[in-house]
Predict the structure.
Amino acid sequence: MQNAHLQPAAYPINLTHKASLIDQQWSPRVVAEMNDYQFKVVRIEGEFIWHSHPETDEAFLVLEGTLRIDLPQGCVHVNPGELYVVPRGVMHRTAAQGEAKLMMIEPRGILNTGHEDDARTAQNDVWI
Amino acid sequence: MQNAHLQPAAYPINLTHKASLIDQQWSPRVVAEMNDYQFKVVRIEGEFIWHSHPETDEAFLVLEGTLRIDLPQGCVHVNPGELYVVPRGVMHRTAAQGEAKLMMIEPRGILNTGHEDDARTAQNDVWI
């Protein structure tokens, strides 16, 4: 998809609306690309698994609800309109009480579970 | 600043609040980094100059107000919670009637005016 957007898009992307179209939680969907990075939206609820991405930082922007990110030293709570970047190699676990809608930004090809081969690994590079 | 965030931050970044701290319009300020990319916030009003970035796509997320992006084929209007990616090499001009607050995402080192040497080129890599 590297060259799919060389023509400017006709419309902007409404992130919360896109997230609301996803049929299941914990299933990131790509909504746009910037160079070799992807913008993904996801609906989450409950707790994910601990994992890390040794090769890349990972950015989270909260659209609705509250995202809790568990980190080795404690946790942060990220509210709508707030951004948090998990540095590469840092173990983390995303969680939400009730549903949260998020945008994630990371290089194309990064799996949601890092290098954990887990039942919760989502299919990658699926657009919505 | 490449390695400045190897330790997880203690708090998320409230983007609108950060933008409100900037003392002048059209002066992007860096709020976070992800690998070699920077997240910048900016307050704009009126029209910028036409320019392009031949080396990179550029992403805009609107926080408050409405961003108009003029493009060779017309314009798009981007509202709060909406994302728009201007493809590399595409001429564009940002504008807003009344003030708009935005987040921009682009590789470190990209000037706001592209390769136009203009009075409106802002100082680069200034954090807030």
